[in-house]
Amino acid sequence: QVQLVESGGGLVQAGGSLRLSCAASGSIVRVNAMGWYRQAPGKQRELVAAITSGRSTNYADSVKGRFTISRDNGKNTVYLEMNNLKPEDTAVYYCNAQVVGPFILERDYWGQGTQVTVSS
Fold first, then answer.
1. Closest of 57, 83, 82 to residue 71, by C-alpha
2. pLDDT tens across 78-113, in order?
3. Residue 44 class from Cβ within 10 Å (0-12 exposed, 13-18 middle, 19+ buried)?
4. In 3-state terms, what secondary structure has residue 13?
């Protein structure tokens, strides 16, 4: 089994910054792509940013230039540095990882979610 544990959410004023972390642990042979998604009340979950094991990145247009995704492959950890936060960034942020296990080719895992609230 694999667990994803997130940390770093909270309440911040508009223009402020937060850093999210997500560590994968358990029966892991390799972690392929990792990413962050978010879901605001009444809206569908959407991709915020993703990063491959080779560190190629992809961002939602709404966060380009403000958010930076990175990872530490040795720690199976992904980070999301969020700067110049806006009230519309308020959401529950979920970590996602595509994990290869001892007997499983690849499977998606999700974190429990961490709340990010940006006040105006």
1. 57
2. 999 999 999 999 999 999 999 999 987 899 999 999
3. exposed
4. strand
Length of the chain, in residues:
120
| Nearest residue to 93 (alpha-carbon basis) of 107, 79, 106 | 79
Ranges of the chain with pLDDT below 70: none
For residue 53 the two structure tokens come to: 């094991």
Residue in the structure block whose two tokens are 């499977």: 107
Supply the pLDDT for residue 39: 98
Asked if 35 and 51 count as a contact pair (C-beta separation under 8 A), the reply is yes
Inter-residue contact 101 to 32 (CB < 8 Å): no
